[in-house]
Amino acid sequence: MNSDQNSDKNGAKNSANFTIEVVAENALLLSWQAKISLTQHNKIIALQAIIVKQLGELILETVASYHCLMVYFNPQNNTSTQAIEKIKRIAKTHNAGLEKAHGEIPKVKSLNDDCIKIPVYYDTEQEWDLADVAKRCNMSIDNVIKQHSAEIYHGFALGFTPGFCYLASLPDSLHLPRKSSPRIKVPKGAVAIAEQQSAIYPIESPGGWHIIGQTPLPMYESKNSQFNATINVGQNVQFYAITKAEFIALQQGLQA
Amino acid sequence: MSQGYLEIISMNGQASIQDLGRLNAQHLGFSASGAADEFAFLSANKLINDKLAANDMSVELHNKQRHCATIEITLGQVSFEAKAACIISITGADCQAKINNVAVNHWQCYQLQAGDMLDFSMPKTGLHSYLAVLGGFTCQKAQQPWLGSYAQTINEMALGFTGEKLTVGSKLYFSAQTKGLTESASEKINKPKEANKPFKAPSQFYAQQNLTLRIMPSSLFLQMSSDQQQQFLSTEYIISPDSNRMGYRLSVSPAQILLTKSANEKILSEQLRSRCLLSMPVTYGMVQFPDNEQPIVLMKERQTMGGYPVLGTVMQTDLFRLSQMRPGEKVSFTLINHQQAQQQLIAFHQKFRP
Q: What Gene Ontology molecular function terms does this protein carry (chain B) (predicted)?
């Protein structure tokens, strides 16, 4: 009825393999396969950039996640049908270009210059979840730290609170469902995991993920009326362990 | 230019600065936020605009006034003192406003002088009242808008971009433009003493009893069996006390639970639910459907991302109505297509053009 198929139903592997759904008077939701895939995500954010560039003022806002792109348009100058047509045309035109520029990117296994390095005090003292995570994953605390910090993560979505970036993928051995009952308060800088994801809470907020440590690094900066998240969608991230003394020293250094 | 302000003298309800919201910062994780009831919000500014037009004020002022930030007062019980002359309008839930202890009508403009007192009491029905001022409010200090809006979002207050939470002693600045009005023009603005003349509030916009929310069905909803769709549409929901500017939580009445249990059938099958595990961007009015099958309608202060299955999106003009409903009141859902919803929203905004 109001779902618009833009590809064959068998999920053929072409970069325009998404559906467009009108989800509000001013919003279209583009959906790809519901999976965490770097290749697919790169195509999504490449299409997002092209849509923003080519449709200009027609577009109010775009928000990307693992497998979706929300496109807000101005309903005063465009019907959803017109907006869909324009997006389809762009996707079609850039299909080949998307394939070429954003093909399979090999997963890097060592730190490189493009990777944001996040110091983490993996905290066993406070009543967070590190010991519990180790127990539930049937491994030592040291092994949890080693596995969490060995991975190169990719920023798939910004949201929840300002500067909260969804990072994936967590090693299979650390997958746990969200806590059955979320905490009312998670501290600023908390490093947490849930299902296939990891993230850092930028401000004190409620949260249902398992907290395994804390970073002294701020997750956003703001000057001259600009807000900049430390980790943006599309960026790579790796965590590294620091001691409590280093955590305190860094925190004090950042506050000075 | 010197800045006039209203100061909060006493407060027992809630209040925040709101405009049409922060529409271009969701990709950073900022809530769109904005006035819960856009009908009352836009009406408040339009009332001032119409007064300006009646007095041949400049076109520039009109265009600026349309989306000016107002104070959203939830459940009344706030008193202000005017520290400078200003022109105000009051709309939304009828919280029996008084100027210098004289009862005044809602959906009306008034002129305040420095030293005048403005009191709001607990409304008998509805939730949010709007106080607009000529030229609009800024934050407590004469601040610039943050990412295109003055709207305050409770969960983002810790970031410090939109001033402090409003409380006793808060100063709400506005441009002191009232002195720019000619004497004859300002005389035409209603004074408190004229307030008791009959005025018909646009009550026909709001639901008189139960509200039927018109939703655009999601692709997930369209994949449900017609029995399951019918079960969702025939359920009467009660607004839960946990509802707020972020979301309206709806619970099923006990009688309805019995019906559902005897049918021994979930509205959303596990098979369809399992396709919705990854977080995705969410928008205003989306109806989330968690495991307990008690819908959550996302409102103005929603987060930008969500992980629950979505059955559809309530059309915006119905969300403005919903925002004025209280816990315990009843709602149900019916379908509308997106073309109709879009036409109605455009027609709605057309009414507020100068």
A: ATP binding; hydrolase activity
**C-alpha dihedral sign at A87, B317, B241, A206:** positive
Do B164 and B253 lie in a common domain?
no
Flag if A229 and B147 touch (Cβ within 8 Å): no
CB contact under 8 A, A2 and B216: yes
Q: What percent of chain B has pLDDT over 70?
A: 85
Q: Please report where in the chains the tokens 């993230």 appear, as a residue.
A: A199
Query: pLDDT for A226-236, tens place per residue?
Result: 789 999 988 99
Reduced to 3 states (helix: H, G, I; strand: E, B; else coil), residue A101 is helix
Query: Residue A208: pLDDT band by 50, 70, 90 thresholds?
Result: confident
B177/A76 Cα distance (integer angstroms):
31
Count of domains for chain B: 2
Nearest residue in B to A81, CA atom: B339
Structure tokens, A214: 């804390």
CB contact under 8 A, A60 and B24: yes
**What is the C-alpha R_g of chain B?**
22
A5 in contact with B, Cβ within 8 Å:
no
Q: How far is B149 from chain A (nearest CA, A)?
A: 12
Contact state of A159 with B29 under an 8 Å Cβ cutoff:
yes
Report CB contact under 8 Å: A70, B275.
no
Neighbours of B247 (CB within 10 A): 22
Task: Looking at the structure, tell me whether residues B58 and B149 fall in a common domain.
Answer: yes
How far A63 CA sits from the closest chain B CA (Å)? 5
- Residues B238 and B95 both lie in one domain: no
Residues 6+ apart with CB under 8 A from B270: none
Rounded to an integer, what distance in angstroms lies between the CA atom of residue B235 and that of residue B252?
7
pLDDT tens column, B187-245: 555 555 444 444 556 668 898 889 999 999 999 999 999 999 999 999 999 999 989 99
Torsion angle, alpha carbons of A207, A223, B160, A156, to 10: -20
Closest CA to B93 of B112, B118, B74: B74
Is B339 touching A (CB cutoff 8 A)? yes
State the pTM of this model. Answer: 0.88
Q: Scanning every residue of chain A, which has its alpha carbon at the shortest distance from the alpha carbon of B26?
A: A63
Query: Given CB atoms, is B347 within the 8 Å cutoff of chain A?
Result: no
Cα A164 from Cα B34, distance rounded (Å):
21
| Residue from A161, A166, A222, A231 to probe the interface with B (highest B Cβ count within 10 Å) | A161
Cα–Cα distance measured from residue A102 to residue A96, given in angstroms and rounded to the nearest whole number: 10
Looking at the structure, do residues B190 and B217 belong to the same domain, yes or no? no
Of residues A23, A158, A227, nearest to B313 (C-beta): A23
Q: What's the domain range around B117? A: 3-202
In a mutational test of the A interface, the residue from B27, B288, B346 whose CB has the highest number of chain A CBs within 10 Å is B27
Smallest Cβ–Cβ distance between A166 and the set B23, B156, B279 belongs to B279
Q: Which of B54, B89, B48, B4 is nearest to B185 (CA)?
A: B54
CATH number at residue B342: 2.40.100.10
Coil/strand/helix, residue B119: strand
What is the DSSP pairing of strand A115-122 with strand A236-241? parallel
Q: Are both B44 and B144 inside the same structural domain?
A: yes
A229 touching B (Cβ < 8 Å): yes
CB contact under 8 A, B29 and A29: no
* Whether residues B188 and B325 fall in one domain: no
